Amino acid sequence: MASKLTARTLQALQPETGEKSDGWPRGGGTLTAWRRASDSVLFYFRYTDSAGKRDRVPLGEWEGTGGPLSLSAARERGRELSARYRAGDRDLRAILEAEEREARREREAAERAAQAEQERQQATLGALLTAYADSLDAKSKASTSAVRASLRRHVTEAWPRLWETPADELTADDLLPVLTRLTDDGKLREAAKVRSYLQAAYTAGVRARTTASATPALRALRIRTNPARDLGTIDGANKTRDRALSVSELRAYWRRIAAMSDHDAACLRFHLLTGGQRIEQLSRLTLADYDADAATVTLRDGKGRRTVARLHMVPLIPAAVDALHAMAPERVGDFVFTATAGQSGMASSTFYLRCRAVMEVMLEAGELPGGSFTVADLRRTVETRLADLGTHSDVRAQLQSHGLGGVQARHYDRHDYLSEKRTALEALHRLVASEGAQVVPLHRKRGRTAP
């Protein structure tokens, strides 16, 4: 049968007055055209479904009224549908819609897979370690700068290809050379630290996927594996130090720093007379943390797994107050523990150098029979000597803010121990400033009473 649709008949169609068919043989459906009120001409494939009802499949708009379909292209698409209809697809529109839904699902799945692959490629070891360090910074962890420096030196710069590799693709075998290079160089302690940082970063990344409080940057990485957990411990890295200065050594140290200029030694005196507090915490002290009337400073202890820093109040005995003011006699900034008149907190390296200089002079003078010491040894010395003086372990723990993670300390013990800590520091000052060698306990040790 001759075709009835031509450009002329399509142009002559009246809006919404019925459709024109192309005159195809019966039994295989037909191509039809219809003009809308908006004056556009639309093509359809019309057929009779399995229930005997007429139905039609839209094909698109004719190019003569602005659409993409030519008459020949519409016929070609119509013939394809007619072939399917004759082959048995009687409910053609429902079948085509189902196929479109399936095609849409496949496209969306492909897009999600492509997006996941892009995210995986972006979720590199470097991105993970950077996000982990940023999360420490967000929690005001004192270790942040040390972690960044160690990862930059031992991973970013030493293993650039590893740094750019997707974190989920790595295995323990891939990470092990990072540690092996350090152990081969004899840097056992540093290897242990890097291992700890890798493990902590992967653990934080995995947890971030299901933790609402995790930083968005960590969660966005979608880390699923933790190869670092299989990295073995570094033998010989954790050699426990037990150096504590004797009473005579501690007194010699005090005499040295008491006789030095305030510029060099005020920070050393303040450190000792506040109980050997952690340098990183002291360096963050500002005038807002100093209560002159109560003679206290309030440190913020973010060490360990705390998400919120623990407020740690330290009483200041008069000699400590003098040392505080001596660090910035002509103050130009708000930092208390300072080498820059308060413009910034004292860098740990500056404090360590000043302490080391005193130690070297003491070694030359034969004042250290037990050998050299570190800043950590001074902290240990304070607790050891206070124990000798009879200071209770609870008070020592409160003074140095350690060992306070138990249920009782976290939830029940709300005593501030301020008077006990002040008493302990006064006893420490008397001990170091005394010339005698006798150590007298503050309190007689209580024995068990008979029932």
Describe the protein's architecture and organization.
This protein is elongated. The chain has 3 domains: 7-97, Integrase, DNA-binding domain (Double Stranded RNA Binding Domain, 2-Layer Sandwich); 123-230; 247-433, Orthogonal Bundle (hpI Integrase, Chain A). Strands 1-2-3-4 form a 4-stranded antiparallel sheet. The protein is built from 18 helices and 7 strands. Helix 11 (262-273) runs antiparallel to helix 13 (318-326). By secondary structure, it is of the alpha+beta class. The termini are far apart.
Compact description:
This protein has 451 residues and is of the alpha+beta class. It is built from 18 helices and seven strands. It has helices spanning 7-12, 71-86, 92-122, 125-138, 144-156, 160-163, 172-184, 188-208, 216-221, 247-259, 262-273, 279-282, 318-326, 348-364, 375-388, 393-400, 407-412, 418-433; strands at 20-21, 30-35, 41-48, 54-61, 290-291, 296-301, 310-315.
Lay out the secondary structure.
Blueprint: H1 7-12, E1 20-21, E2 30-35, E3 41-48, E4 54-61, H2 71-86, H3 92-122, H4 125-138, H5 144-156, H6 160-163, H7 172-184, H8 188-208, H9 216-221, H10 247-259, H11 262-273, H12 279-282, E5 290-291, E6 296-301, E7 310-315, H13 318-326, H14 348-364, H15 375-388, H16 393-400, H17 407-412, H18 418-433
Antiparallel strand pairs: 1-2, 2-3, 3-4, 5-6, 6-7
Helix pairs in contact: 4-5, 4-8, 5-8, 7-8, 10-11, 11-13
